[in-house]
Design goal:
By secondary structure, the protein is mainly alpha-helical. Helix content is 60%, strand content 0%. The protein starts with 10 loop residues before the first helix and ends with a helix.
Length: 123
């Protein structure tokens, strides 16, 4: 990137400037092996929701959008951890009310699809 000298005001100059400014984030996968080189899986997972968002009436308020984003996140997290989303949601929503309005992080962690307690309950 440092060797490129794009024409001033061009789209290439814009792209090179962006890449230089994002170098740390773009190279994160080199320093942390658990970070994927691309986010294609994430992009593909959210595509149906992005394409359909205008069709969902419950997203016409900030609270509705936040709620749907939470549900989408839970569903995709379950899928990414090899858990059937419906079973996971039923399981998590059964236990969540017993944790109170603002559960401590340690308790909330036990509801994650990768947690051993959840894995044992669903498998």
């Amino acid at each position: 990137m440092d060797m490129l000298r794009p024409q001033s005001g061009s789209k290439l100059e814009e792209a090179v400037t962006y890449a230089k400014n994002q170098k740390a984030a773009l190279c994160a996968f080199l320093e942390h092996g658990e970070v994927d080189i691309s986010n294609n899986l994430t992009e593909n997972a959210i595509r149906p929701f992005v394409l359909g968002r205008k069709n969902w009436l419950f997203c016409d308020t900030p609270k509705g959008a936040e709620s749907s984003a939470t549900v989408y996140t839970l569903v995709e997290t379950a899928k990414a951890n090899g858990v059937k989303p419906y079973e996971y949601l039923v399981w998590a929503l059964t236990y969540l009310p017993s944790f109170g309005k603002t559960p401590p992080a340690e308790k909330a962690e036990t509801l994650q699809p990768w947690h051993p307690a959840m894995q044992a309950s669903l498998h």
